[in-house]
Amino acid sequence: MSAQADALRCRAEPTESEGEKVAAQRLGTLLVPVPGLSGATYPAGTTVTVRGRGATVDAFVHGDWLPLSWWEFSDGLREDIADR
Questions:
Q1: Bias regions of kind Basic and acidic residues — which residues (predicted)?
Q2: In the list 32, 56, 59, 84, which could disulfide-bond 48, CB 3.0-4.6 Å?
Q3: In Å, what is the CA distance from 80 to each residue of 15, 27, 84?
């Protein structure tokens, strides 16, 4: 691999010195029905794995990707939400 290609590959990977960190995964619960990339629609109450922070996040159900807005899910499991 050339030095230039190696430098580009390394630059694409975030580093802590750049102030970027990979967001940890956490569990969440859908608040509304949401379609996945596969075309399947997941009902409210479905447990999802959430990655990212902010107004939009990536969520996954058995490998199916669901791009979520902040109002479509709640952090935590369904049982936690029922206690509120």
A1: 8-22
A2: 59
A3: 34, 11, 7
